[in-house]
Amino acid sequence: MNSKVYTDFNDLHVACGLEEVGNQIRLAISSIEFSPEPPKSATHNFEGQDPDFEQNVVVEPSGGAGISTGNTVQPEPSPEEQMEKWIARFCLIEGETNVWDDYGKKIWKKAAFQTMLGGKKVFDTWNSHSKRKTISADDANGRATGESHQKAKEMIERFIMLEGKKACWDTYRRELVGTDVMKENWAGAYDMWAKSREKRMIWHEDLVFVPSMYITEGQINTYDGMEISPILDAKNQIIPQGDALELCSPIINLVKFLCGKETAAYEWLMKWLAYPLQHPGAKLNTSVLLCSAVQGSGKSLFFEKIMTRIYGECYSVTLGQNGLESIYTDWAERKLYCLFEEIFNNKSKFGMMGLIKHMITGEKIRIEKKFMSGYSQNNHINCVFLSNEVQPLAIEERDRRFLVLEPNQKLGNDLKALIENCLEPNSSAINAFYTYLLSVDLTDFTPYTEPPMTKAKQKIIQFGLPGWKLFLDDWRAGLLDNPFVCCLSDDLYVAYRQWCHKNGEKAIPANKFLSLIASERVVAKGHGRIYEDVITGAGYQEKRKEVQRRMIFTGLPPENVKQAEWLSSQVKQFRDKLKGDHDVPPVL
């Protein structure tokens, strides 16, 4: 081998050949000492090593080659350095005590942030630092990526706050939601939403229920339209009234059955049903009452099962006694049709008449909800009352509100079967009846058109008249022994007491009786001059004398007849029919 020292394997290869290169490489490999294989048991992994780890054979103690011990331990930052890191990371939110975490993308409450820093002293140092940064609330909420902030953004899209009320309008579910409920359902996100400048808010009176769809700019209409649709032809037009009549003839026959032989009542009722459907939201100042002791006459079959399907669950409600007497009136919210089923007993039918009259003719209705502020809503409710009582309502003699019907027969099986077929889900009879009502001619009908007088209404009015009014009606009709002529007030009250004793009525005081009959404007009370016999001296001599007395006038005297003479004859004619003793001087 050549004695020259080669420093490159390429030169060695050229000078001595490839075999010499291989020999030197094998010699170098054979001289390397490998570390023994570590034991497989974990408990023996540190055999032969100092348990105190004072020396590490991998690291040269001289500090020459190997791993430096200085790279394994991080020095503690000084308070100034740590404060610089907090200054760079956190920002105070303007107008609030909360803190924005720019690294964590979240908002810290002051108490939690102060605890994290290590106490109030460190917080005050950070807060008063000249380099402490600030951020607006909108920017912080917009950058936040936490779950609460995502919910708050969903709330901004979904809810509208009602200014002046503790409630919000849910645009998804189309209903009012109390703020207390929202705080529970949207815990953590409600406060962020309430403080956000992006939330939507309107004055509470701008949330309206207007089925006519005539609203002003800025208002929100809670009316969503009727669910039912009329039947259309191939040209997308409402089918003719005759075709609709054929499809809903069983329903029409049911209405005629309920009206009996009252033709005028049937025509008025059909227009009453049609008007609010042709004019959505129209408030009729009249109502319908059906009372009958006959069970199964079809009252509920029509007014509940058919009419409530036309209005749908959203805009119709059926109430009983408890619903009407409740202090909460949320049942009336966004309603167009209300059916009252057997809600009156002998104690409540008089006391509830004020509320019922207001529901029929009032323009506004107060909505009271539990745990929510009350508010007034336009009254669009049209009411129907059903009862099996003889006198379900105390209807007045001059009533102008109620159409009263009394179906006195049980619904026949054939017609009942046809109606049940109309109620099947696949039947179009109710849609056809709705189509028919949309075509009813309403030329001579308005919301103030008074219902016709019916036999059933006359019966209820007569049933509820007070005793003094029954006496007056019988006196005018000539049904009493006493003629309907001018008389003394005392004589008339005596006749009234006799009538009450005979008919089991409770008499009222004379002053009330006379004032009440005079209020009817059928008779008049006042003073009149008549001739009476007076007794003078101890000899009981009679002398005719003109005196003034309190009287009830039923008419005027004929011409060319002295009033005192005519009144005296009228008083004598009435007194001659009185029975029993009375302290009234005889009249000549």
Mean pLDDT: 83
Number of DSSP E strands: 20
Largest sheet: 5 strands, parallel
Radius of gyration: 49 Å
> How much helix, percentage-wise, in residues?
25-40%
State the separation between the terminal residues, measured CA to CA: 184 Å
Oligomer: single chain
Element layout with pairings:
Elements: H1 9-16, H2 18-30, H3 79-89, E1 90-93, E2 99-101, E3 106-108, H4 110-117, H5 120-127, E4 133-135, H6 137-143, H7 147-158, E5 159-163, E6 167-170, E7 175-178, H8 179-185, H9 190-195, E8 200-203, E9 207-208, E10 220-221, H10 241-247, H11 249-259, H12 263-278, E11 287-291, H13 299-303, H14 307-315, E12 316-319, H15 321-325, E13 337-341, H16 348-351, H17 353-361, E14 364-367, E15 375-378, E16 382-387, E17 402-405, H18 413-422, H19 429-438, H20 455-464, H21 467-476, E18 487-488, H22 489-503, H23 510-519, E19 524-536, E20 541-553, H24 563-575
Parallel strand pairs: 1-4, 5-8, 9-10, 11-16, 11-17, 12-13, 13-16
Antiparallel strand pairs: 1-2, 2-3, 5-6, 6-7, 14-15, 18-20, 19-20
Helix pairs in contact: 1-2, 10-19, 11-18
Distinctive features:
four-stranded mixed beta sheet; single chain; 588 residues; 24 helices; alpha/beta
